[in-house]
Amino acid sequence: MERFFEYLLKVFKIKETDRKKIGYFEGFFSIAVNIVISAIKLFYGLILNSVSLIADAVHSISDVLSSVVVIIGFKISNKPADKEHPFGHGRVDLIASVIIATMLLIVGFEFLKDAVLRIKNPSISHSTPIEILIIASTIFLKELLAQFSFYLGKKINSPSLMAEGHHHRSDALSTIVVIVSLIATNFGFKWIDGVAGIIVAIFIMHTAIDLLKDAANPLIGAAPDKEVIEDIKNMALSYDNVLDVHDIVVHQFGDKWHISLHIEIPQTMSVLEAHTLADSIERKIQSKYKGMAVIHIDPVNSDHPLYNKVKQFIKQLSEKYPELETAHDIRIVGEENSFNILFDINLEETKENYEKLKKIRKEIGEKFNAGVVVNVDPPLS
Q1: What is the domain count for the chain?
Q2: What is the distance of C-alpha 157 from the center of its chain?
Q3: N or C: which end of the chain has fewer CB within 10 A?
Q4: Structural domain of 70
Q5: pTM of the model as a whole
Q6: What pLDDT does 275 receive?
């Protein structure tokens, strides 16, 4: 199937890296196919007086409207950065997904009400095998559209195209329910049309809620994928003088990334050496994640005689206190016989967590007969 989609892009001379053209192509292609599908379903829905089939037709019509939203979203999201939007307009793609999902939710709710009424007062007519076959053929077309949207959505990492794919698939699955209801009606179970309408409506609403969650989470600051965090961390750790990496922050604006992270380096490095190292890591990250990468330097005195013992003990203690897994910037201030241990930790500011911190400080202090200072940072990836 993917080979067919690749061939389709070649025929229309669309490069796989051209985000805007891919979005436009999917949108206009979906509109053309959905107009045909909607017309077929609506025509037979009115002839047969089937609430489930009419609901399914309107579901397909909403696909046309959502494709229009996708096209508008791609047009706006590809606008260059300006003074008001220094990181570009990439998140308009997510807003387009929210609009599509909201439309689905409204459609589902309206047909839920109509379907309930049709259970009490069924008025559907008998359908012929040819009519059922014609309606069933739209299932293949909708699943083809869904696969196409998923393929392109993954290709350019587009939430709105992935939402489009789910929208197309929900239409295909709801049509299967409609087909079952039409067959059942021919055997005298006319009330099943209303039940099928309810199932279609609930399916539409469930899909809408899932899409709303997927689109809203990045907008309100959801954590990035663990794979992305690990990839960025490994890139930085691939350099000899990087002792550890923490506080990785990732923001995505369409196909643009804004990444910041802290790296721990030996305090013996000169400012010039540290700056050169940070520049090299930033360029490496930006070569894969297009946009901006910013690195903060944390000098570490790993030459202190007890540094490795302190670090190892904190690591062992993390088995008892998982909160210590985020411990970083471990510093030892003072001489071997009189010193303080300082480190940072990512932790939510709750009463329970601060009680744990007291116990952690006490255990580390008693182990090394030293003062312990812990700086609490916000919980990050």
Answers
A1: 2
A2: 9
A3: N
A4: 2-219
A5: 0.56
A6: 94
